[in-house]
Description:
- The chain has a domain at about 5-120: Gcn5-related N-acetyltransferase (GNAT) (Aminopeptidase).
- The chain is built from 6 helices and 7 strands.
- The protein starts with 5 loop residues before the first strand and ends with a helix.
- The chain is about 35% helix and about 30% strand.
- The chain has helices at about 15-30, 35-40, 45-55, 110-115, 130-140, 165-170, and strands spanning about 5-10, 65-70, 75-85, 90-100, 125-130, 145-150, 155-160.
- With about 170 residues, the protein is an alpha+beta fold.
Amino acid sequence: xxxxxxxxxxxxxxxxxxxxxxxxxxxxxxxxxxxxxxxxxxxxxxxxxxxxxxxxxxxxxxxxxxxxxxxxxxxxxxxxxxxxxxxxxxxxxxxxxxxxxxxxxxxxxxxxxxxxxxxxxxxxxxxxxxxxxxxxxxxxxxxxxxxxxxxxxxxxxxxxxxxxxxxxxx
Length: 170
């Protein structure tokens, strides 16, 4: 699927559209994994707006990198990374990457990944399990499961890691 899209750093003015993508893609992706009480909570959108406002304006998150993908003026994907939250051996962690299902396979996800992750440094991420589409996407980008598993809000996740890709090209 070939589409024209742009990826750029996220800005505070993007918060409402980022929050909408976050909520919509959760509903598309996690309907069978998360409870309807969470996904259909009328406060979910405002909760995500507060999350993104803090992520993009609070100095304590200054080390994070956030990006948005847009198509024809509409935000269609979001991503954010930052310092590892749980593994000192992985200097960076992909916190989230969401793209509307209508744009899966278009290259938007890969462009967002490249926009927020340093390809020369090890990185880790947590991905819902089961989530075969997302896990296949990360495997395509040379992530492997490392055996770590966690349960958060009744959602099982597995950790995937990727090590220095630059070393592989030399």
